[in-house]
Specification:
Order of helices and strands: EHEEHHE
Largest sheet: 4 strands, antiparallel
CATH class: Alpha Beta
Radius of gyration: 13 Å
CATH topology: Alpha-Beta Plaits
Number of strands: 4
CATH architecture: 2-Layer Sandwich
Structural class: alpha+beta
Length: 96
């Protein structure tokens, strides 16, 4: 079974306090769901049409595990804490 990856790009941070509240809840929810943080931060370099946005890469054992974690009550509570504090693009993709 291929691994799965969450790729989240932060287009804009509107409220740093809400983002901090989200992170405090989201980290444990993701790790409890089996997620492993592989990278996070602003890109060291961008090419082509790349944007220098905060990006987070998280690995899961499967698409099912990744989506179950996203849909879990614990992660949904983290999203509620974020409450429009950031504009993000979150994608779940299957590994090759």
């Amino acid at each position: 079974m291929p691994k799965a990856y969450w790729i989240s790009a932060y287009r804009a941070v509107k409220d740093p306090d809400k983002l901090a509240a989200y992170a405090k809840l989201a980290g444990p929810a993701i790790t409890e769901g089996g997620g492993r943080f592989l990278a996070r931060g602003v890109p060291a370099k961008v090419y082509e049409a790349g944007l220098a946005q905060r990006t987070v890469l998280i690995e899961f054992d499967s698409i099912e595990q990744a989506t179950a974690t996203h849909d879990s009550p614990a992660y949904q509570a983290a999203l509620a804490a974020l409450d429009d504090g950031a504009e993000r693009d979150l994608r779940v993709i299957e590994g090759v």
